[in-house]
């Protein structure tokens, strides 16, 4: 049986010509992650000025001194701001600065909530580096608006076996229960699950099901 190809309305590809001269704030609690994000931005935007912060208060202090920034890339969960608090706080004071949410949060409906509260784009950290970099490229080139970013999903091909496994996981079955139902060994189930996790770039059943629901793969 042929692979099923799960597609959305937009495919992400890197463009040939990077954008030039942007001022970007990167806010993440981990400096090493800040460096990775800054590197992604620098690859798609030439001559970038980047300000890094680990806390919301650091960002707000910088904005009070100079509010002229082209974008803010921010994690939802910071030491001094959890969930939508940071997004709402920034949009309440600086409504004209585009905010890109780049987060590892798997909270229910998190993407929809961010976009409804003014985020210009939402990118999950569970995506591949290539995908995130391409999404940033599209954003800075002005090809994404505040409501289209939620449709960005990379092309993922799943085999029929992987789709069946995903649906059984969604039913809450253990590896042992899946093995019995499918007439195979537990080792086979674990191997298939491991490959599925790697293929979809997730690290847990929770992340897999969150990704599946956001892309309507379980319908």
Arrangement of strands in the largest sheet = 5-3-6-7-8
Report the sheet with the most strands, covering strand number, pairing sense and barrel closure: 5 strands, parallel
| Termini Cα gap | 20 Å
- Low-confidence region ranges: 1-17, 143-154
Find the CATH superfamily of the largest domain: Response regulator
Provide mean pLDDT, rounded. 81
CATH domain class of the largest domain: Alpha Beta
Class of secondary structure makeup: alpha/beta
Distinct helical segment count: 9
Helix percentage? 40-55%
Radius of gyration: 19 Å
Number of domains: 2
Determine the strand fraction and express it as a percent band. 15-25%
Query: Overall 3D geometry?
Result: elongated
**CATH fold title of the largest domain:** Rossmann fold
**H-E order:** EEEHEEHEHEHEHEHHHH
Number of strands: 9
The second-level CATH architecture of the largest domain is 3-Layer(aba) Sandwich
How would you sum up this structure, described in words?
This protein has nine helices and nine strands. It is α/β, with parallel strands linked by helices and 219 residues long. The protein has a five-stranded parallel β-sheet, sandwiched between helices. It is elongated, with a radius of gyration of 19 Å.
What descriptive keywords fit this protein?
five-stranded parallel β-sheet, two-stranded antiparallel ribbon, disordered N terminus, 44% helix, 219 residues, Arc Repressor Mutant, subunit A, Rossmann fold
């Amino acid at each position: 049986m042929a692979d099923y190809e799960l597609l959305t309305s937009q495919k992400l590809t890197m463009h040939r010509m990077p954008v030039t001269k942007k001022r970007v704030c990167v806010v993440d609690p981990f400096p090493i992650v800040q460096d990775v994000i800054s590197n992604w931005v620098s690859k798609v935007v030439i001559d970038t000025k980047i300000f890094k912060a680990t806390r919301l208060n650091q960002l707000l202090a910088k904005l009070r001194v100079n509010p002229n920034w082209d974008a803010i890339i921010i994690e939802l969960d910071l030491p001094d701001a959890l969930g939508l608090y940071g997004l709402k706080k920034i949009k309440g004071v600086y409504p004209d600065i585009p905010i890109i949410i780049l987060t590892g949060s798997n909270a229910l409906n998190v993407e929809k909530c961010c976009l409804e509260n003014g985020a210009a784009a939402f990118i999950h950290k569970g995506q591949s580096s290539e995908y995130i970099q391409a999404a940033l490229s599209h954003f800075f080139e002005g090809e994404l608006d505040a409501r289209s970013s939620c449709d960005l999903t990379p092309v993922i091909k799943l085999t029929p076996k992987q789709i069946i496994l995903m649906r059984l996981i969604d039913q809450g079955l253990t590896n042992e229960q899946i093995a019995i139902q499918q007439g195979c060994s537990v080792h086979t189930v674990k191997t298939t699950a491991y490959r599925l996790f790697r293929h979809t770039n997730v690290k847990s059943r929770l992340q897999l099901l969150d990704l599946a629901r956001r892309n309507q793969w379980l319908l």
